[in-house]
Amino acid sequence: MKKIAIIYHSAHGHTEHIATHVLEGANSVPNTEVHLLKVEDITKTPDELLKYDGYILGSPTYLGGVSGPFKMFMDATGRLWRTQKLKGKLAAGFTVSSLPSGDKQSTLMSMFVFCMQHGMLWIGNAILPEQHTGVPYEEAANRLGSWSGMMAQAGHSAPADSFPAGDIKTARMFGKNFSEALHRVSGTGQTFAEDQEALA
Q1: How far apart are CA 189 and CA 168, in angstroms?
Q2: Contact at 8 Å (CB) between 149 and 124?
Q3: Cβ–Cβ < 8 Å for 142, 94
Q4: Count of alpha carbons within 13 Å of 41, Cβ hemisphere only?
Q5: What is the mean pLDDT of residues 42-65?
Q6: How large a percentage of the chain has pLDDT more than 70?
């Protein structure tokens, strides 16, 4: 059984809504146990991270970066960094903003650098944008074209569940891909070649 922590901050519910769909995708892979952890809680007990094999980080994009509470979580892991307790763990990230760009890439890059400093292995967003195959833009997976991590967009002051169908689909695919990667790296899942053979 592989354990994944989805660690997120959500001031207005949007990032949490995406996190639940990431969880749904990650949980769809057999022998995987996935937990939602709010940064407000894990910041107080960062050693709890050691229970997990992989981490999916989620934050809204505020002024081109992670939110204040999420940065506090990052800073709280300093002792784990000094002892490199998280080295070799898998990690990935997602972010939400109210604009198609919104400088979300900066948020993902801050998560990436954080994970690299801990010696983690980063999993990107290996989903081809579906609008290029004729899927309507709002329904297309990875419609925002992000490869370094997952991006989602909800309109300014929109309800927390008002994401386009494509972003919800992307969240599920993103979570599933992370789970599968974790099992492959651990030697408990199919190899890429085996996957291709199964699809043939």
Answers
A1: 25
A2: yes
A3: no
A4: 11
A5: 97
A6: 94
The CB density around residue 62, as the number of other CB atoms within 10 Å, is 18
Strand partners, 57: 7, 93
Can you read off the two tokens belonging to residue 17?
């809504």
| Length reported for the chain | 200
In whole angstroms, give the CA distance from residue 121 to residue 34: 18
The CA distance from 183 to 32, in Å, is 9
In the three-class reduction of DSSP (H, G, I as helix; E, B as strand; rest coil), residue 153 is classed as strand
Q: What sign does the CA torsion over 150, 155, 161, 166 have?
A: negative
Please give the Cα distance from 63 to 15 (Å, whole number): 16
CATH of the domain spanning 2-199 = 3.40.50.360
Task: Summarize pLDDT for 147-157 with one digit per residue, the tens.
Answer: 999 999 987 77
Residue closest to 182 by CA, chosen among 103, 94, 92: 92
pTM of structure: 0.91
| Torsional class of 141: left (φ above 0), alpha (ψ -120 to 50), beta (otherwise) | beta
16-49, pLDDT tens digit by residue? 999 999 999 999 999 999 999 999 999 999 999 9
Tokens of 15: 């990032």
